[in-house]
Amino acid sequence: MRLALKPALSRSWRDSATLQFGTVTRFAGVLGNADKTLCDFLALLDGTRERPELLNEGERIGLGREPADALLTGLEETGLLDDAASATRALARFPDPHRDLLRPDLASLSLVHSGPGAAPAILGRRADTRIEVRGAGRVGAAVAAVLSAGGTGTVTVADSGRVKPDDCSPAGLPAADIGRLRSTSAREVVQRAAGRQPVPLPRHKPDGNPPDFVVLAPRDGSAAFAGGTYEARLLLRAGVPHLYVGVVEEFGVIGPLVIPGMSACGHCLVLRREDEDEAWPRVLAQLADGGPGQARTPACDTALATAVAGLAALHVQVYLDGGRPPSVDGYCEVSARDGMFRRLRLRGHTDCGCLWQPLPPA
Ligand SMILES: [Zn+2]
What we know:
By secondary structure, the chain is an alpha+beta fold. The protein folds into two domains: about 1-95, Outer Surface Protein A, domain 3 (Alpha-Beta Complex); about 130-345, NAD(P)-binding Rossmann-like Domain (Rossmann fold, 3-Layer(aba) Sandwich), CATH 3.40.50.720. It has 13 helices and 13 strands. The strands form three sheets. A seven-stranded mixed β-sheet has the order 8-7-9-10-11-12-13, with helices on both faces. A hairpin with a 2-residue loop joins β2 and β3 (about 20). It is elongated. The termini are far apart. Zinc ion binds near residues 267, 268 and 352.
């Protein structure tokens, strides 16, 4: 392990002898009695030396072996140290120029996951992850692009038909692709987001293994309100975690993120809405049919769709990186009226059965 002070952290003097690592005081690490010798030792933490060599250096510059050892332990416990060797290995999983594009992402991970080597391990796991995004509209294509940029090894986008103006956004399908196949345009967006030149890929041969995660983002935004579909039941049965995300009219919804058998599912949310409004199933069915009356122009604010896509991708990453985003047992709403996000809690519905435990053997 080649120890390095986390390059993501700024360094500033709080006073003549106190060093602060990090800008946000709430999360900052503070080191007192920072004299010249100690600063010389800190300069050696550049990721080129292992711990035994650092202790030798500590003795050589007059800090002392034991104080150097205690200092390293303190810095490690405060979350200020990372392992430069692990970071190099994790980034080597990605071809250039994606490797360079990912350095700030790795730096961010190093602040969220504190131990030396923890962030590189997570980035390495992302490289092995396969995510399928279903729907290449303003939200779905942008989610796929962001996940690809963030280091997800394989991102596929499932959709059919040709690109229409309603599908395009600065974060997703480009306007220049109107009329092209959505699947082709989405694949190129995913490749460009990872710094690659778009190339045709061999026809995908299903290997029988489900993806590690599925994002349900149909172009009509119905994932914002519809859950418990046949498609979702298959995912539940296969144990594939999935996230609903969509924009309907002026509302964006992120969630629920469903961990099969462990958190409330999309059908739980449908049942809850039925409890609150008995006419809801009828309204929802007509939404799917296009509804009565004249042709509609579906609403989808570009800024809203981009914000929703970004938050959805962040929730997927937080979950796959081992965290619990607020869309688990809940969902987030954001309105184009005021841009305010709010999180609503979602309990497993008693009539759903997704959280029922099997009966113990008699
Ligand atoms: Zn359920």
